[in-house]
Amino acid sequence: MKKNYIICIGILCGFLSISCNTSSEEINDITTNTVTTNNGLDETIESKVDSLLAIMTIEEKIGQMNQYNGFWDLTGPQPKEGAAAKKYEHLRKGWVGSMLNVRGVKDVKAVQKIAVEESRLGIPLIIGFDVIHGYKTMSPIPLAESASWDMAAIKKSAEVAALEASAAGINWTFAPMIDVSRDARWGRVMEGGGEDPFLGAKIGVARIQGFQGEDLSANNTIAACAKHFAGYGFSEAGKDYNTVDIGTSTLNNIVFPPFIAANKAGVKTFMNSFNVLNGIPATANKMLQRDVLKGDWGFNGFIVSDWGSITEMIAHGYAKDGKSAAEMAANAGSDMDMESYLYVEHLANLVNEGKVEERLIEDSARRILRVKYELGLFENPYKYCDENREKSVIGSKANKEAVLDVAKKSIVLLKNNNKLLPLKKEGQKIALIGALASDKNSPLGSWRIAADDNTAISVLEGMQQYKGNSLVYAKGTDVSIGNTAFVTETKINTKDKSEFGKAIKVAKEADVVVMVLGEIGFQSGEGRSRTKLDLPGVQQELLEEVFKVNSNIVLVLNNGRPLAIPWADAHIPSIVEAWQLGSQSGNAIAQVLYGDYNPSGKLPMSFPRNVGQVPIYYNHKSTGRPTEPAPDIVFWSHYSDQENTPLYAFGHGLSYTNFEYNNLKIKPKNTSANNPKITVSIDITNSGDYEGKEVVQLYIRDLFASVTRPVKELKGFEMISLKPGKTKTVSFELNKETLGFYNNEDQWIVEQGEFEVFVGGSSDKTITSNFELK
Ligand code: NOJ
After folding, report:
1. Contact status, residue 526 vs residue 240, Cβ threshold 8 Å
2. CB-based contacts of 600: which residues, under 8 Å, 6+ apart?
3. Whose Cα sits closest to atom 8 in ligand 1?
4. How far is the CA of 75 from the centre of ligand 1 (A)?
């Protein structure tokens, strides 16, 4: 029997229930001396919240729990008829705590003014918006940024987003999405950090730090929101909003880690999710919200429902009507109702009937007011409403430079045979082919509500700046978009090959062909799941036709999810993963193609060989039959028509130079499982011709455990920069946080036994060694 060391058990958090009688003047008097309490709360703020709660009516407290959409933009189903009039009436009554999708200083000021100047207590609104990958100056989509593995760049990108959003009146973003997902069919993989909980946690924290900054009360930082709690990334068959059924081990070890890290990083809010988790909607899930998040993890902020997720419990078959949905959500710990209109309608009656305890309403209101105080909204409700700042900050040169930097770092070089890349800067005839090459809209991605259409730099524009070569462009074909919302341009003529001839002609005459193919920005994102992962429309045919006349092709992929491109991998010499890279997309791609930036990105999600392999992920379990027992014996875990491995593995990404890994050392080779500390070191040499960056990755395998462990788990990574011929030693420390796991009793344990260590530049290209815990 192995010995288990229980490392951490949850901390329980109680409700604060101090109250005192204070006038509203006193409430608005802000004391600058702050004292921090033992549980991380600011006493000054806590006493202000107490004072305010003491004079609020039950309806006003419930009002804080009510969030309405604005009057123009929509990011969910249409609101009810007559909703606008109700919103104004409720704002005046102090029955609205927050609004979303109100943006721009003028509009934010208008609604804030009603709340602050016309309601009885003048409590300011918190203004939420989906600032997912930028506000107006767009960063790469989050999945792309995650491919940078560069936490400083990711943080900077969130900082820029916060800077612009806050200048437009917004003080709360519904980001980061930290749902781990293994299913490329799910459209929302574009919004997350990929398939790995360790990398996903680091990325989530970097983004939270970027949004919230060091000082949440500054006017250029905004509250972040860890979403969607929990399990949304495991929607069955990758179909958005679908059922989630996962076991304790997956929930604890794969889904929760980024949320645990987000809470530790001080994220101010969480959003629950649309899905049912093992039969219980997340919105009414007491285990998730009250027991785990607010209980065990001691979360002090508030939980907002997802759009209409309270009312959707009726369709789920969990609540019989709106009133019981409100009752279940409030009792389970959902603090704020986004667009269900149910809290404001039913909670007061539910309290009167004794179905929802008043102390729970008080706790929710307290959590919401706390964040408002922390933002400094009581001090100055119009602090984000400065027209001059709005004009000077949004779209500034510095912001464009910052998003260009992260865009370059997000590009992944998937393949580069015969050193076709980087392109020579002079004397070449280049044919640029593909509708996406001239597209100025698609690179802005899916969550770009505030961006101006057609403002991205296209690949054509980016490449035109390199004047030493001749460059000719042909569209070839359009890109299929299927049936999707928010699309202003019609590009659905997918079978049309009438432009093939022109593309083939320019390809024939060129030295090198650059083809930009893939998905448009709106093919991924919320409600945009796909059953196919190939190149949409007739793009695959176009690629094959062009290849017949010129095989010197650089394929640049634009996409919001992993695609399955086995033919391209078998035939095309160079393949560049360029996602949807935001406002500076074309500049970033051109700089990589011409070698002004040596690509350094690594895949945050496995790329399958075909859709039938999905879900495919590197940190899978072994199974009892992992290898072929003998030639032609079929009884092992595999497909009869496809390999088990992905086309491109998690962590894969090439450079224009080469890196060699040598001298893997582990110290000590044996140590106690009680508080272990193991140092892993490795020498990396740049053996190629270019200076370059490499993400050194460390994986482990716990060979035997009381709950089976994955065949590999990422436990460390470091980005290094090396000049040709130079060597660097990188060291990692493994300890109880990285060597343990949650057992099925929710305990974090480190077990005795042998561990394997893998280090390399990709999850599938590593050198190995081992150690033992005794
Ligand atoms: C629904 C999405 O699931 C969520 O992520 C988003 O923040 C809200 N709509 C608000 O737009």
Report:
1. yes
2. 148, 150, 409, 653, 655, 692, 693, 694, 695, 719
3. 307
4. 7
Work out the pLDDT band at 449, boundaries 50, 70, 90.
Answer: very high
Between the alpha carbon of residue 367 and those of residues 99, 264, 507, the distances in Å are: 17, 17, 61
Instruction: Name the residue among 369, 343, 402 with its Cα closest to residue 49.
Output: 369
- CA-wise closest residue to 268 among 145, 390, 98, 19: 98
C-alpha distances out from residue 291 to 12, 261, 648, Å: 9, 17, 39
pLDDT at 29 > cutoff 70? no
Give all strands (DSSP E) within 618-712, no chain letters: 659-667, 670-671, 677-686, 692-702
| Residue intervals in the chain for CATH 2.60.40.10 | 659-773
Q: Whose CA is nearest to atom 9 of ligand 1?
A: 307
Is the C-beta atom of 306 inside 6 A of ligand 1? yes
CATH class of the 406-613 domain in this structure: alpha beta
Closest CA to 332 of 296, 301, 291, 372: 291
Q: Is the CB of 270 under 6 A from ligand 1?
A: no
Which atom of ligand 1 is nearest to 132's Cα? 7
- 27 pLDDT band, cuts 50/70/90, is very low
pTM above 0.85, yes or no: yes
Q: Identify the residue whose C-alpha is closest to ligand 1 atom 4.
A: 306
For residue 658, how far is its CA from the centre of ligand 1 (angstroms)?
42
Determine the residue type at 162: A
CA-CA distance, 104 to 127, in Å (whole number)? 11
Beta strands in 63-200 (DSSP E): 66-69, 98-100, 126-129, 172-173
b/e code 215-227 from CB counts within 10 Å (16+ = b): ebeebbbbbbbbb
* Protein residue closest via CA to atom 11 of ligand 1: 75
How would you class 752 by CB atoms within 10 Å of its CB: exposed for 0-12, middle for 13-18, buried for 19 or more?
middle
Task: Please tell me the predicted confidence (pLDDT) of residue 76.
Answer: 75
For the CA of 191, the closest atom of ligand 1 is 5
| Cα-to-centroid distance, 469 and ligand 1 (Å) | 45
Whether omega for the bond prior to residue 615 falls within 30 degrees of 0, making it cis, is yes
Burial class (CB in 10 A: 0-12, 13-18, 19+), 21: exposed
Residues classed as catalytic: 306
Q: Is 206:263 a contact under the CB 8 Å cutoff?
A: no
Which CATH class name applies to 659-773? mainly beta
Given a cut of 50, whether residue 9 has pLDDT beyond it is no
What tokens were used for 270?
């969480």
Average pLDDT over residues 335-347: 97
Nearest to 596 by CA among 422, 369, 393: 422
The Å distance, Cα 228 to ligand 1 centre, comes to 9
Domain with CATH 3.40.50.1700 in the chain: 406-613
Please determine, for residue 170, whether its predicted confidence score (pLDDT) is greater than 90. Answer: yes
